[in-house]
Predict the 3D structure of the following.
Amino acid sequence: MRRIIFFLAVVVVLLLRPDLPLLAQESWLNDHERGWFWYEIEPELLPEEEPPVAPSPPEPPQASAPAPSKPQGPPALSVEWIQENLEKYKVRAIDNPTSENVAAYMYLQRVMLDKSQRFAEQVKHVVQLDPYLDQGTRRPIASYGGAQFSKEAMAAQQRLLVRIAQQAGIFFFFQGGCGHCEIQAPVLRSMVERYGFVVFPISIDGQPLKNNLFPKYVLDQGQAQRLQVIQTPALFLGKPNTKDIVPLGQSALSMDQLAQRILTAARDTGWITPEEYNSTLGFNAEMALDLKPDSLPPNLKEQDLIGYIKKMYSDRLGAGGAGGNSLPNPKTEENCAECALK
């Protein structure tokens, strides 16, 4: 039954489309070389071109983060601000000296003077509380205290000069017609009488001094050239047992200058100790630090610098280097019976 229905459907189609056989025949006649094939490879379909995508509109520029604001300068009325602006106010007042301009400059100047006064008062307060900062610790500021320091320094100087005179003498190079040599001779005579120095007078030109001081002299036999004497009077400090000769000067020297140079030469040659030399200076030189960049600890930070300096002063004084008026190291409780302090 199904076959009859299928057949009737095909007949109906053929009757309705009479051109189908003709189309098939014409197709075969025009393309008979292909033969009869039930199956043929279908041609590959080219990929359909996608329609061009319209460019997207540019994105609006993003708001960039605001640039960091530049520093506005030092705060108003700070010392740095006044230093930068005071001259401007001054010039304005001079160029246009109105009451307002002059008063503005004077008020700024008054503010700075007030700051200076407060700073000076605070300096005095801090110095009073810290002996390491107090200049009076090194030499009393009071006139009578300074006089006592000078008196003690002079006594130490005299003791050392007497001791040096026992082991060293002064070589005195002069010329007969040298006026400076004549005024130097009485100073040397005073050094002989006060401290006991032996003076060895040497005449370069073979002539005596006109004032007839040091009549027992010797002629120069090349010593002046070896010691590089370029003018007279020329003074040298010599130690016979070691044959050390140290220059003192080649000009007229006062007694104080000569004494100080003798002490300096004795310190440099090791005839006296640095501590003995410092006792002649009239101030407590032992408290002075000689801090240099290469002497600092390599890892020392800036915030620790002031604490390091204070510790250096404390250690220096604690080691007994503060001078003759410093306190001795504190005794332990067991050994303190002699001073009755516990």
Notes: Confidence is low (pLDDT under 50) at residues 20-24, 320-324, 332-342. Residues 168-270 form a domain with the Glutaredoxin fold (CATH 3.40.30.10).
